[in-house]
Automatic annotation (TrEMBL):
Matching PANTHER family: BED-TYPE DOMAIN-CONTAINING PROTEIN, HAT FAMILY DIMERISATION DOMAINCONTAINING PROTEIN-RELATED
InterPro entries: RNaseH-like_sf
Protein name, per record: Uncharacterized protein
Top-level lineage group: Eukaryota
């Protein structure tokens, strides 16, 4: 995750923090959910020491992506750290498409890990199964890298970007 062009974990922490300290901000955000015709969903808190909470947080941000982007773009004084993380340019009316692609990519890859973790945590899993399970995880990740497959949604969103950005992200 460190080699991505976006600090996903920091973005999630900053977005959650922005709304967790203010009921007024949450109410304003709710109006943006209505504006983009999206069902209200409470943001999930990511615990930095528990990396397993990262993917549910990413999923929730993706479910709320349009509302969140609209909210932050509408702020006259968007917090600088969020503005930088979302790569919002001054007087811009959109968040660069690559931000959503990074989130979709992380969601896709983290789902692979979470599936493996569920199998490892299963009561029927024995120590003899661990090698097979971990080998299977390695195959899945290697296959995705070799085939450049990072999820259907990620691929579709990537096609919508100009070729220069596509090359940069591939």
């Amino acid at each position: 995750m460190e080699s991505l062009g976006l600090d996903v974990e920091n973005l999630i922490l900053k977005i959650y923090s922005h709304f967790s300290i203010s009921a007024k901000r949450r109410e304003e955000l709710k109006s943006f959910y209505d504006f983009v015709n999206c069902e209200w969903r409470e943001l999930i808190r990511h615990v930095g020491t528990r990396w397993l909470s990262l993917n549910p947080c990413i999923e929730r941000i993706l479910q709320s992506y349009l509302a969140l982007c609209s909210y932050f773009l509408s702020l006259e004084n968007c917090p600088l750290h969020i503005k930088r993380l979302l790569k919002i340019e001054t007087n811009s009316d959109s968040v660069p498409g690559e931000i959503e692609i990074y989130l979709l990519f992380c969601n896709h890859i983290l789902n692979v890990f979470q599936e493996t973790i569920k199998v490892l945590e299963c009561n029927e899993t024995t120590s003899l199964d661990i090698f097979t399970i971990m080998t299977e995880l390695k195959k899945k990740i290697t296959s995705r890298m070799e085939n450049r497959f990072y999820g259907f949604e990620t691929k579709q969103k990537l096609k919508q970007l100009n070729s220069e950005i596509q090359t940069k992200l591939h």
